[in-house]
Each structure stands twice: as structure tokens, then as C-alpha cells.
């Protein structure tokens, strides 16, 4: 997989940051970030998507694994944005683990 293929993660993360800084009323991301429960709502979605990903993998359903993993990655990106964590910080941590 090339770096270009992964650029979609940066693109989505940038949109999430844009929604965080310039809220749009009809945006799902904005609804998560501004939910009255705050980070708890985002973490609830991360947990829900984690379970759905596990169940898809356990059921060995490739397309469902891809679909649910995409949902999980999206909600992780929202959590990172909410907590002020950059993708560069995540990448750096992963690089440290390769050493």
C-alpha cells in the first residue's frame, strides 16, 4: 500500500478538524463533538464500532470486516481530534514500536 493510498485518512482527519473549528449544523461530526455528553458519546461510538468489528471478524465476513473497520477508524479519528491528538503523533508512536 502506498502513502497515497493512506492519504484518505489525512483527508478525513482534516475534515474532522475543520468541523471542530468551524461547526456545520447538519454535520454528524459536529453532532458528536458538541454532544452534551462530550467525549463520552465519542467513546461510546468507538466501543460500539470495536464490538461490531470484532463480531464481523469472528464471523469471517470480509466485506463486513472492511465496513466495520472503516467505521471504527472514522470514530477513532473523531476521538483523536476531540483530544487534540494528531495523526503524526500516532505515526510516531507506531514508528517507535518498530525500532
From TrEMBL:
InterPro entries in UniProt: HisE (IPR008179), PRib-ATP_PPHydrolase-like (IPR021130)
Pfam families found in the cross-reference section: PRA-PH
Cytoplasm recorded as keyword: yes
Name of the top EC class for this enzyme: hydrolase
UniProt-listed GO biological process terms: L-histidine biosynthetic process
GO molecular function: ATP binding; phosphoribosyl-ATP diphosphatase activity
Cellular component terms (Gene Ontology): cytoplasm
Main location: cytoplasm
Localization in the cell: Cytoplasm
Signal peptide extent: none
Top-level lineage group: Archaea
Reactions the enzyme catalyzes: 1-(5-phospho-beta-D-ribosyl)-ATP + H2O = 1-(5-phospho-beta-D-ribosyl)-5'-AMP + diphosphate + H(+)
Pathway(s) annotated for this protein in UniProt: Amino-acid biosynthesis; L-histidine biosynthesis; L-histidine from 5-phospho-alpha-D-ribose 1-diphosphate: step 2/9
Record keywords: Amino-acid biosynthesis, ATP-binding, Cytoplasm, Histidine biosynthesis, Hydrolase, Nucleotide-binding
EC numbers, comma separated: 3.6.1.31
Family to which the UniProt record says this protein belongs: Belongs to the PRA-PH family.
Identification of the protein by name: Phosphoribosyl-ATP pyrophosphatase
Source organism (scientific name): Methanolobus halotolerans
Gene behind the chain: hisE
Amino acid at each position: 500500500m502506498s502513502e497515497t493510498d493512506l492519504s484518505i485518512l489525512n483527508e478525513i482527519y482534516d475534515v474532522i478538524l475543520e468541523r471542530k473549528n468551524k461547526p456545520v449544523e447538519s454535520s454528524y461530526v459536529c453532532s458528536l463533538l458538541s454532544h452534551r455528553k462530550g467525549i463520552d458519546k465519542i467513546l461510546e461510538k468507538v466501543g460500539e464500532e470495536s464490538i461490531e468489528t470484532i463480531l464481523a471478524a469472528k464471523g469471517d465476513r470480509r466485506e463486513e470486516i472492511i465496513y466495520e473497520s472503516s467505521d471504527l477508524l472514522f470514530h477513532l479519528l473523531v476521538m483523536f481530534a476531540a483530544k487534540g491528538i494528531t495523526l503524526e503523533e500516532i505515526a510516531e508512536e507506531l514508528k517507535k514500536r518498530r525500532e
